[in-house]
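Ticket #4471: structure export looks truncated?
Reporter: QA, pipeline team
Priority: medium

Steps to reproduce: submit the single chain below to the structure queue and open the exported record.
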Amino acid sequence: MLILGRKYKFTELELARLEKKFKNIAHIKYRDRLEEDVLKELDLYIHNNDFDIFVLNTKAKVGDNIIKYLTKLQFEKRNRKIQIITIEQFVEKYLNKCYIPEDNNDLHYLIDIKPYNAFEYAIKRVIDYVAVFFLWLAHSYFKLFIQSKMQKESPGSLYFTQPRVGQNTINFTCYKFRTMHENSEHNPYTQNNDDRVFAYGDKMRRYRIDEIPQYKNILKGEMHLIGPRAEWDILVKGYENELPYYHERHLVKPGITGWAQVNYPYGRDIFDTKQKLMYDLYYIKHWSILLELKVVWKTILVVIGKKGL
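Actual output as written to the record:
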């Protein structure tokens, strides 16, 4: 994999994943360089290494001679044929997320983000109702045990409710098992070793047990089993200020688990929020039963401690 330019900066997590797929990964700097110098370096890499993919990852205009060189590569008789691909296509095909540019000059990526059609929605609701049955069983099993743990570690209400933003930006009340001490400090982000979280609450978070009561939201038609994470309305206002296209994820109902949640760690800043949004948009754009099953499987890996990321 040979990359020209640095328009899109890969995260450490993405580079680790790509290193498992590609034996060689090399970058060529493009901006502020003479075309002939770039061409020489490019030719050197191509003839001394076995690359499968050449990724165009630059904002700058690509010179005519480089385009000619890349075009001719497709007709050379080599053991391996090099695929030429843009960074937008690469991110979607190999990282399973929708590319979002750094500026708002090109918004064509939003064109294909549409709500589910009637058939897709019907399938999702069937999946939802099957999931609700098992979540109800899990709720019944854990409820009394969690109550007894709370009485010892953090007396108070069993459930935690919070306004979350759902489909069409309509707020709803989200139900979860409480994991923090009541009347904890108002802070939208949970930190590592957060002293607001009591001991068993931390365990519930790690194994996603606190999410189980959201089966009630599924029954009320406010959520799906799988979809973009339902975010706190206060956070959403801040995200929208930083990411004007953030509300695209609200074309569909949120989910208890989702493609972003099983592919990216817990977010702590606007950079993480944008990364997770890319996964959410990919999920909406490429929804299928197979993708749905992948999320379920990766969620199971997360719950049993295999992380699934």
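Status: closed, not a bug. The export was complete when the record was re-opened. Leaving a note from the reviewer for reference: The chain has two domains: 2-95, 118-303.
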